[in-house]
Amino acid sequence: MAAVVQGVPAGLPLDLEAIDADLARRQEGYGRGGRMKIETDRVEVLSGLKGGVTLGSPLTLLVRNKDSVIEKLPQVAAPRPGHADLAGCMKYGHRDGRAVLERASARETAPRVAAGAVARQLLAPFGIEVFAYVLEVGGVPASPPDGQSLWDAAGDRRHEVRAASAFHGLDPELEEAWIGAVDAAREQKDSLGGVFEVRVSGLPPGLGSYQAGPDRLTARLGAALFSIPAIKGVEVGLGFEAGRRPGSRVHDPILPAEGGSTRFRRGSNRAGGLEGGLTTGEDLVLRAAMKPIPSLRQGMPSVDMESGEARDATYQRSDVTSVPAASVVAEAVVALALAEAFLDKYGGDSFEQVRASWDYHRGQLRDL
């Protein structure tokens, strides 16, 4: 599997070990299935890099598969409810669900994680960090301390806390409950979904646009998260809760700043760092809900593609849950969307030109 990343400025040093570390995190998480024992993902750079530094030309990233090729795998007899099997066959006018599921599989997210790792390395020198963590598994929500979010409670230890979690979470007290939920679902031959949050700190105000709907960063980030297989809901800031409150309890007050990079500050961040399709300079706060994986050992009602008779859906090797993996993919796609918006604002052919544009705008903000 390959990803081609265009638009990366020349002169950006790339840490390939950091890319491999993100690929490894994607394979982690309690409840993963057999394929994670087969694959050991590593990135190979085929173009766009010399001496560990980008050239400005397209960057081609390759992640190899060790599993069986599609020609050697049996055809899917009965499509799985919840997957693209049947709809894909109906779209292309054939009965071969195998031809659909292999491309629709979340395996394709591996090269996207590699590409996202490049985007993260582009953003990092400007103090921008993308960080995702799991909030809920199988209907069991994390329990933040009174008056604090899990993000605030973890503080500077968030990387350490997440690394110690079997679910990429920030609530150590909940690990046993989540493990129990996954074990129970495995015993029942079922699967579980969940919810994760993506936090981005260090963003400047003004990324994105209000000029046209598709250019709004809200739309671009929503599209990025919905591009991840099995994502069924996305929220920004308060999300759906904003529709239940009066405006006085939704909008973030604008206050005079006392020092800092601008003359303004926000009294809260209920908008989640986005207003009018633009970043506000506050932390970007995104949440996404992942449905349970559709391949169930217990079987789901389906129809044989050849005979048309009722039968259970074909079981494909699968995870019990992959919410932790989805959170890593979310980091990648959010980083890619933000890197694109960042280069729209500060773009140049070389990294030095991007830095100069960034420095100029930061000075402009101080004088605004």
Write the layout of secondary structure elements.
Layout: E1 2-5, H1 16-26, H2 35-38, E2 43-47, E3 49-50, E4 53-54, E5 59-63, H3 85-92, H4 97-104, H5 109-123, E6 129-137, E7 140-141, H6 150-154, H7 158-164, H8 175-187, E8 194-201, H9 217-226, E9 231-236, E10 254-256, E11 264-266, E12 274-275, E13 278-279, E14 284-290, E15 301-303, E16 310-312, H10 323-346, H11 351-367
Notable characteristics:
368 residues; alpha+beta; Chorismate synthase, AroC fold; five-stranded antiparallel beta sheet; three-stranded antiparallel beta sheet; 11 helices; 33% helix; 18% strand
Please characterize this protein's 3D structure.
With 368 residues, the protein is an alpha+beta fold. It has one domain: Chorismate synthase, AroC fold (4-Layer Sandwich), CATH 3.60.150.10. The protein contains eleven helices and 16 strands. The strands form six sheets. A five-stranded antiparallel sheet has the order 7-6-8-14-9. A three-stranded antiparallel sheet has the order 1-5-2, with helices on one face. A two-stranded antiparallel ribbon has the order 3-4.
